[in-house]
Amino acid sequence: MRPVLPDVDALVADALRDGLSGATVRVMWPDDWAARLPLVVARRVPGGASNPLGIDVALVDVQCAATDRREASRLARIARVALAEACRNQFRGDDGHLSRFEDVSGPAEIRTGSPAAGPDLFRFQATYRVTARPL
Question: Are 53 and 3 in contact (CB under 8 A)?
Answer without folding.
Answer: yes
